[in-house]
Amino acid sequence: MKKILALFLTAALAVSVLVGCSTQQKGGTVNTDGSTSMADVMGALTEAFREKEPNITVNYSGTGSGSGISGVLDGTCDIGLSSRELKQEEMAQGAVAHVVALDGVAVVVNPKNPVTDLTTQQIADIFTGKITNWSEFGGADAPIAVYGREDGSGTRSAFEEIVGVEGECAYTNEYGSTGDVIGNVASNENAIGYASLSAVDSSVSAAKVNGVTPSEATVKDGSYTIQRPFVMVTKDGVALSESAQAFLDFATSAEAAEYIAAAGAVYPN
Length: 269
Known about the structure:
Elements: H1 2-23, E1 28-34, H2 39-52, E2 56-62, H3 65-74, E3 79-82, H4 88-92, E4 95-109, E5 117-118, H5 120-127, E6 145-149, H6 154-163, E7 173-175, H7 178-186, E8 191-196, E9 205-206, E10 208-209, H8 216-220, E11 227-235, H9 242-251, H10 257-262
Parallel strand pairs: 1-2, 1-3, 5-10, 6-7, 6-8
Antiparallel strand pairs: 3-11, 4-8, 4-9, 4-11
């Protein structure tokens, strides 16, 4: 009788363990690296994901799009983050893009600058140094300080490609983050720069481009033309961990739309 009871208790314990395992939440760490422009979107997504999966830690490091893409290709991070489309050579190495949001690249000026509407051609002329004084647009008789991001930045790559000035810009200063560009434009009345629309605050003014104000609505309907994707990058043929796959699935689902919008970006679908 004791042997039968012992066997029964052992079986019951085994069932209990199996049930416990089946209801246990996922656990682990997901390392993401790349675009600084995606900081707000990543903050919103990781906070919302933590509510769903409290045992999964998602780490974010903002080192620039190029660094994030190379990181996922060489295996130093789980998911790369890029604020531009992937290049052919990156895709040839196995990089795979998962678009999570759309973002306008705002052309920002100091709030004291009366010039608030520029054409794409005028922007190109400013950034290539063909026009160097604000008076040519009805502004102050003052030299234009042209600020931009460092080489390898997704924001810079997207802006230069869309405006048609790749490799031709004559920057007064280059900066390592979106925040640095905004901060320096805010402190110089004669400055102009570009930044992720989701990062623009009241310290700068986002100029109209071809008469269109940058906003979530104009990015979504395509009327604001200086825009780019926010991309999570994986490597073809390399399986993600269960935790990393769960985060990617959440970030690209309709469930993430409200959090992406709260961060100032646009859900792509």
